[in-house]
Amino acid sequence: MIKKRLFRRIAAAALCVCVLLCYVPSALAVRTTPGIISGEFTYYPSGEWQPETDSFFYSDAYFARTGKAPDPHLRSMSLILALTTAKLERTEDLLEKAGFSAKDISAEDMDGSPTCDTIGSVISHKSTVYGEVIAVAIRGVNYGKEWSNNFETGADGDIKGFSDAAHRIVNRIKEYERRRGLHGAKLWITGYSRGGAVADLAGKYINASLADFGMTADDLYVYTFEAPAGSAERTGCENIHNVTNPNDAIPLVYPEAWGLSRSGVTELLPADEIRIYRKELTLSVTGLGLTNRYELIPGEDIWTMPTKEISPAVPLDAFEREFAAWLSSGTGRAEFVRYGGDIADLLEVFAFRGLADNARLTMFMSRVMTKMLSAATISYIISLADCKPGSEKYEDALDKLTDRFYTAMDSTERGDLITGEEFDAVRRAVPGVIRFALPLVRGDLSSEHELEFFGTFIGNLETIVSEHYIQKVFALVKKTDSYYTDGVDIGARTSEGTFGDVTDSERNFCRAAVTTAGDELARAVLTADELAELNTGSNVIVSLSASESAVRPEDKEALANALTAAGRGSRVGAYMGLSLTKKVGNTVRRRTASSSSPVTVTIKVPRGLLNRDSSVIRDIDAVAVGGGKADFLPCRFDSSSGTLEFETDSFTFCALILRDRPAVTDSTDENPPTGE
C-alpha cells in the first residue's frame, strides 16, 4: 500500500513537472492563439524622433500556404519587419521574439555609414514544420546617403539604382544559404519605400532563377510597401505583393510612360478619399511693362506669385496620377539620366535633417530667391520660354540665368544659415536642376492656368508627403488584418458571397464604365482561386479607373505603324490609362493588367474630339497600346450620343483614334428619267 501511495505521489509530481515544462515556455512567448506568437515591437514614425510601440502577431503557419495567395496577417508582419530596419537592434529584437535564430543573423550595410553604393539588409532563418524559412528585411527607412542611389536610373532596363541593390540582396541570400546548407528554403522578403523597390526586383530576379534556389514559386513570399516602380517588364509575379496606399504619390515614381512598373501584383489599401483644390500660381509683376515679346521696361524689381484655388476639389490620387503623367510628358528618361545626379545632390542638402536645420536652409534659399526676382531674371525666363531649346539664344539665356543665381547666392549673407559644404553642393547642382526643370515650367505655363501643376503640388505638399508616412500606411494595413480589428478572417464565412462592380464613372476620364456584368464579368476578371473564394462566402468587388495619360515613345511608334498599316489616315485624339482592381473578402484591392476574356467598356467621348464639320463623317476607334504593341479593339461608336463602346482584355493604356471621311451627298433626282 505504501509503495502504491509513493508511486502515485511520484507520478503526480512528474505530471506537474511536465505540465509546467509545457506551460512556462508558452507563457513566456505570450501566445494568445494556438500557433500565434504575440509581442511588442518599436519603430520610428515618419517626421518624428520619438519611438512608438505596437503589437505584432507571428505564426509559422503563414508559410503553410502558397506565397501567391495574399495573407493579411503576413502582410502586417512583413510591414512591421520592414519598419524595424531603421535601427538594427530593433530588427534583431523582433526576429528573436518571432523565434528566428538570434545567433545566426547576417546584417550588411546596417552600420552608421551608408553611402550611395550600400543597401542595408538583415537576414535570419527559422526551422518550422513547413520547412526552413529565411527572412530578409531590406532597409527603406533611415538610410542616409543611400538616398542618392534612388536617382540613378540608367538609360534603359530596370532602374539601375534599385537593380544593382537587388542583385546584391540576391547574392547575399545565396551566400547565406550556401554557408548554412539551406538550399531549398522558403524565402520571406520585405521592404518599405526604396527597400520595397529593391525587394520587388529581388523577387523578380529570384522568380527568374527558382531552380538556382531549389524552390518553386509557391515558396517565395515577397511583400513590398509604397514601392516606386523599377521594373522594365510587367511580369505580374503573383508571389510579389506590392501593397500601396492609393493616395501616396511615391508608387507613381518612376512613371509608367517610361515603360516602368512593379514586378508583382499591386494591392491597394482601403484608404479614404482625400480631396484637394487645384492651385494656380499667377505671375504678377509690379513696375514692369513689355515692349514686345523679348524686351522689358525696367521698373521696380518686385514680382509675386499669388495662389488661387481652382474649384471644384478633386481626388488627391487622381491629381497625382495626372501630375506623374504630366512630368513624364515634359521630360524623358534620357534627360533624367543627365540631370538626376544634380537633383539628388540638391535634395540631399535638405534631406535627413531636423526641423531646425531645414528651417535655416530654407531661410537662406528664400533670401537667395528674393534677390533673384528682378527685371533681368524675368527677361531671361521670357527668352527661355520663347526660343527653341538647344538654340544659341536659349543657351545664352540659360547661362545668364545660372550666373544670376550664382550672383544671388554669393551676395547673400550666410551667417550660420548654411555650411560651406552645403553651399558648394547647391552651387554644383544648380545648372543641372535648372536645365531639367525648364521644359516642365514651359509646359506648365502653356496650360489654361498658369503654373497649375506646380501650384497644386506645392500648395498641397504637406498632404501629399504625409500619405507616405509609415504610421499612415501601418494604420491602413492594420485595417485589413483581423488580429488588429477583431474582424472575421478570410475564408471563415461559409455562405455564398456577392459580386459587384463599384466603378465610379463620374470620377473617370471620359466617364469610363464596364458594361459587362454579373457572372460573365466575374468569369472574365477573377482567377479560379478567387472564384472559389466567392463561391465559399467571400464578397468580391471590382472597379475600373480611367485617367488621361501619356504613353512611352515606343508605344507611340507602334501605334503609328499600326495606323499606317491599316491605311486609315487616322490621328490620335487622346491617350487613356485604364486600371482594373478587384477586392476579395478582407484583402486589399489588387490591380490586374488583363482579363481571361474581353469585357465591354463604354466611354463618353470628350466634346473636343467630336465632329463639328458637316462635310465629313468621323469614326472613332479604340486601340490598346503597351509593351511596344498596338491592337485595334472591336468598337461601336454612336455619333448621336457621343459614346464609344469597345471590348478589351487589356487594362493598361488605350488610344482614342479619330478617322474622318468625306460625307456622301445624295445626288439622286426626285423624278429620275424613265427611259421613254
Describe this structure in words.
The protein has 19 helices and 27 strands. Helix 2 runs antiparallel to helix 15 and helix 8 packs across helix 12. The longest helix is centred in the first third of the chain and has 27 residues. The chain is an alpha+beta fold and 676 residues long. The strands form six sheets. Strands 4, 5, 6, 7, 8, 9, 10, 17, 19, 20, 21, 23, 24 and 27 form a 14-stranded mixed β-sheet that branches. A four-stranded antiparallel β-sheet has the order 18-22-26-25, with helices on one face.
Q: Could you list some keywords that capture this structure?
A:
676 residues; alpha+beta; 14-stranded mixed sheet; 4-stranded antiparallel sheet; 19 helices; 27 strands; 38% helix; disordered C terminus
User: Between the first and last Cα atoms, what is the distance in angstroms?
Assistant: 141 Å
Main β-sheet, in a few words? 14 strands, mixed
- How many alpha or pi helices? 19
Number of strands: 27
- Using only C-alpha atoms, the radius of gyration works out to 30 Å
Give the percentage of residues in beta strands: 25-35%
Which class best fits the helix and strand makeup? alpha+beta
* Low confidence ranges: 1-34, 286-304, 487-495, 667-676
- What is the general shape? globular
